[in-house]
Amino acid sequence: MKEELHFNTATIHGGQSPDKAYGAVMPPIYQTSTYAQKSPGKHKGFEYSRTHNPTREALEKSLASIESGNFAFAFGSGLAAMDAVLKTLKPGDEIISTDDLYGGSYRLFTKIFKDFGLKFHFVSMHDTKNISNVLNDKTRLIWIETPTNPMMNIIDIKSVVDLVKGKDILVAVDNTFASSYIQQPLKIGADIVMHSATKYLAGHSDVILGALIVNDKNLAERLKFIQNASGAVCGPMDSFLTLRGIKTLHVRMQRHCENTAQIANFLKESTKIEKVYWPGFKFHPNHNIARSQMKDFGGMLSFVTKGADYKSAIKIVEKLKIFTLAESLGGVESLAGHPASMTHASIPKQIREKSGVVDALIRLSVGIEHVDDLITDLKQAIG
Ligand SMILES: *Cc1c(COP(=O)(O)O)cnc(C)c1O
Fold first, then answer.
1. Are residues 236 and 318 in the same domain?
2. Domain check: are 354 and 223 in the same one?
């Protein structure tokens, strides 16, 4: 049964109860591969940790609660979670996704699953019409990422859900960038929510972990089967760290969003800046959709400085002192990235530039430090 808690309570208590053995308030790290049986098949509900682990189960219940879903599954990484979704499909099935997808997702689709007979279409999803153009009777999955990485395009989840209503097509949303605090796709009618919990959910840049949350029982059973049969599960220590991270998700996200709004406005006013991509601007092409499906505008933004090229963009990210130059996002510390050479290097230049990922683009994951220090750092790096 779904608990109807406010989000800020669900992050702390959702699906959680003190440990049955000793009443530990935080679920213990059950660092065990196997469980004693009294007689074959007679046990306390746990047989082998690929199939079940009490710490992972505590995390999965928390994940279901914060996304208002019935079932959740935790994996060894975000990509392992996506891998499980794709394994529900069969050769000949078609998938429609966005053309400015996370680089690792694009690589998984085109370098692995394409060879197993799945067909992928990449379209600009900020206009739902582009999806209709490639939709056909072989389409089985629509893979949405919103806001997109790193261009901060917003995809209208509800209009995609309405487009395929009544058809045998799953709508999956990669909710990594928004986090469950800002956006809850199952409530808008999506079938699957995926997270790289590595980012905002765990929130401290100390763990790699992925998650899937669904409502439908048959889909849940299939995913549970794949999770166990393929075995890309996360360990108990990582489950514990992610569960601990989720407990402060709402307060972290509030600060991420506040700081990002201030930095976006600072950059917009700067004479050195050519373009800022952030869905909170009224002039953002899908600002109104962002307002309707998101609680706030998130902790990510991208920008291009005037007259910058590959070299000068790299100089700027090298000069930053508080922002650390690193892959990833969503941790308490601010990070800067150069998508063309880092996260999006696996996407061919022609394809990535068509969607706006030019050589001069810089992406920021704004942390929860004092915003004045972050702005001072950006000022000195931009020059
Ligand atoms: C990081 C990321 C992933 C992949 O997750 P891992 O935990 O690194 O496997 C997928 N989608 C988005 C949007 C991401 O940022």
1. no
2. no
Flag whether the pTM goes above 0.90: yes
Residue to probe by mutation, ligand 1, list 107, 198, 205, 343, most atoms within 8 Å of CB: 198
Q: Which domain holds residue 189?
A: 7-246
Q: Does the Cβ of 363 fall within 6 Å of ligand 1?
A: no
Reply yes or no on whether 102 is catalytic: yes
Specify the residue with its C-alpha closest to ligand 1, atom 8: 78
Is 174 catalytic? The answer is yes
Using one digit for the tens of pLDDT, what is the confidence trace for 260-303? 999 999 999 999 999 999 999 999 999 999 999 999 999 999 99
Shared-domain flag, residues 220 and 82 = yes
Q: Looking only at Cα atoms, what is the longest distance across the chain? A: 74
- Nearest residue (by CA) to ligand 1, atom 2, is 196
Q: Which helix (H) or strand (E) holds 357?
A: none
CA distance 336 to 319: 11
3-state secondary structure of 212: strand
Distance CA 379, CA 320 (A): 9
Q: What's the Cα-to-Cα distance from 248 to each of 81, 203, 323, rounded to whole Å? A: 23, 9, 22
Question: pLDDT tens digits for 333-353?
Answer: 999 999 998 888 877 888 888
- Residue 145 Cβ < 6 Å to ligand 1: yes
Say whether 137 is catalytic.
no
Select which of 102, 106, 181, 277 is catalytic.
Answer: 102
d(CA 211, ligand 1 centre) in Å = 10
